[in-house]
């Protein structure tokens, strides 16, 4: 028995070393081996910590619970379970676990910090509910651009703003130029902000464009398919990017490495362009401006981080408030509500942020039927939630999500959906892949992640998916990977008190 414990402890020690080096998946493997030899609350709790780093919050909660069941006095497990439940926005359960820790060690700094963050968010939510107006009402429609003064020190390119009509019939457009785009990028590189008037105008104008797109955007290379919008003959490549999470300099590197948006090159960014990274505003403004400049060559899908609940915890709301004020965040929120949920390319490749559904009866038509307008946040269940949240798994069938939100779906689910909807494959994002991408489910499902060295800790590559068209009018897939590029020394989530677990 002693020898078995010694072997298990040695495996735990190896897991600890991997955890310190940010090799989280390897750490999980060592902890799992240790648990297999001799279950121990420390092994479970340490594996919970590795799962937290991998954002597998559902698995982390399960491990911390197992540790508590083995030793109800093991406080570190309560803390880690609180971290994981907080991360999936279950504030009440998180608060209960933190209270248990603080009842025994009232001065524990990590628990005190987490308790304060939970209380702050709970109070913020209660306050917002108390003053809330009907979410269908438009803050953007109420903006008075004549009353927003341009800062005196702004020396960049002009932005022509035109407002016509009144009330619900009001239309806004901005005249974005390539010169304006390039000067915007340089301003951001220099650590400068946009004038608030421009910031509001870009978000408002982009919102108008998003509202006029369908919940399922459909386009492709021209082959006389009446169900989709045909791209011009000039288009040679469609590039699909996964999560970029406020990593502005890495987003710039995508265009520098693989080509700029334009009549020969279409881009689709597949959600989660904000939160985590400390340049989320800059990334959002860049992508919105590209949409205004190239509306038929640049597309955005919504991710699970383009939602209010995630923005409160993972940094974007606080970054917006710090850089531009609370009202701009409210406008961003409204624009996120107008984003499409998925894109169908060539009637063959379905691109969404998360994944497939808990019901085999769901089809492409259910995505087309999603009602985004008037202004509304995604519900906590159903097609919208699953498009944003679900993940693939190796085994057949469906199972509870390792995240604690949504479900996981197996290769048989992917195969049946592709067969019934005449798809070649599904392209999704939502999860770090160390090589930047992964072909899964017998090639029927592709995960692409475009934030290299995610949060400055993961060490992963970034990747994009390129679709081209051959002489037989068949789609061809190619993968491109890239490393992170240097950025100013500003840590992830620098503008928020949230832990960013």
Automatic annotation (TrEMBL):
Pfam families tied to this protein: Metallophos (PF00149), PPP5 (PF08321), TPR_8 (PF13181)
Origin: domain of life: Eukaryota
PROSITE patterns documented for this protein: SER_THR_PHOSPHATASE (PS00125), TPR (PS50005)
Serine/threonine specific protein phosphatases domain mapped to chain residues: 301-306
Gene Ontology cellular-component annotations: cytoplasm; nucleus
Keywords: Hydrolase, Manganese, Metal-binding, Nucleus, Protein phosphatase, Repeat, TPR repeat
TPR repeats: 8-41
Annotated localization: Nucleus
Lyase among keywords: no
Enzyme class, first EC level, given as a word: hydrolase
The EC number(s) this enzyme carries: 3.1.3.16
Reactions this protein catalyses: O-phospho-L-threonyl-[protein] + H2O = L-threonyl-[protein] + phosphate; O-phospho-L-seryl-[protein] + H2O = L-seryl-[protein] + phosphate
Active site: 305
InterPro entries linked: Calcineurin-like_PHP, Metallo-depent_PP-like, PP5_C, PPP_dom, PPP_phosphatase, Ser/Thr-sp_prot-phosphatase, TPR-like_helical_dom_sf, TPR_rpt
Named cofactor requirement(s): Mg(2+); Mn(2+)
CDD domains xref list: MPP_PP5_C
Gene3D superfamilies, per the entry: 3.60.21.10, Tetratricopeptide repeat domain (1.25.40.10)
Main localisation: nucleus
Family: Belongs to the PPP phosphatase family. PP-5 (PP-T) subfamily.
Protein name: Serine/threonine-protein phosphatase
Species of origin: Komagataella pastoris
Upper lineage: Eukaryota, Fungi, Dikarya, Ascomycota, Saccharomycotina
